[in-house]
Amino acid sequence: MADFRRVTDQLSVSPQIREQDLDEAAAQGFRTIINNRPDDEEPGQPSSSQMEAAAQARGLAYVHIPVRGGPTAEQVEGVRRVMEQAQGPVLAFCRSGTRSIVTWAVGEAISGEREREELVRLGRDAGYDLSGVLPA
User: Fold this and answer.
1) What is the DSSP string of the chain?
2) Which of 63, 88, 95, 104 could form an S-S bond across to 31 if both were Cys, CB 3.0 to 4.6 Å?
3) Where is this region: Disordered (predicted)?
4) In angstroms, rounded to a whole number, what is the distance separating the alpha carbons of residues 63 and 79?
5) Band of pLDDT at residue 134, cut at 50, 70 and 90
6) How many other CB atoms sit within 10 Å of the CB of residue 80?
7) Which domains, and CATH codes, for the chain?
8) To the nearest whole number, what is the mean pLDDT of the chain?
9) Which pLDDT belongs to residue 1?
10) The predicted structure's pLDDT at residue 92
């Protein structure tokens, strides 16, 4: 069952999704899927290529930006570019959703788009603690 957690009007994050969850994503109006999970992280996890094909079959744009541990500057910038170019709401996922929201939030903080306090609040409202990962 899908656990899409709204962060902003443009971004929701989720723990691992399956192909069938993409039907719900499309029905909810998401236009782009960001997969922040590296392939083969755990047995039984759908591959990025499987998820890409399933997303495209439903008319969804798909981007794979795998993050291991903390995001790199390139990964943060990659997510920022996808968000800027998205033609509607974005759903980002990883194993728990944490890497997805952290990668996005770091980009927002670095760019000055949002203040740290707002990002911490948005994270908390979505069920994630960003207080220890964002610059003070």
Assistant:
1) ----EESSSSEEEES---TTHHHHHHHTT--EEEE-SPTTSSTTPPPHHHHHHHHHHTT-EEEE----SSPPHHHHHHHHHHHHH-SS-EEEE-SSSHHHHHHHHHHHHHHTSS-HHHHHHHHHHHT---TTTS--
2) 88
3) 1-21, 35-55
4) 9
5) confident
6) 18
7) 5-126 (3.90.190.10)
8) 96
9) 63
10) 98
Structure tokens at 62: 């798909």
Picking from 1, 16, 42, 9, the residue whose alpha carbon sits closest to that of residue 100 is: 16
* Cα 65 → chain centroid: 9
User: CB 62: neighbour CB atoms within 10 A?
Assistant: 18
Question: How many Å apart are CA 49 and CA 1, to the nearest integer?
Answer: 21
Looking at the DSSP bridge assignments, the partners of residue 92 are 13, 34
DSSP-assigned beta bridge partners for residue 35: 64, 93
Residue 92 has φ and ψ, to the nearest 5°, of -110, 140
Residues in the chain, total = 136
* φ/ψ of residue 35, rounded to 5: -100, 110
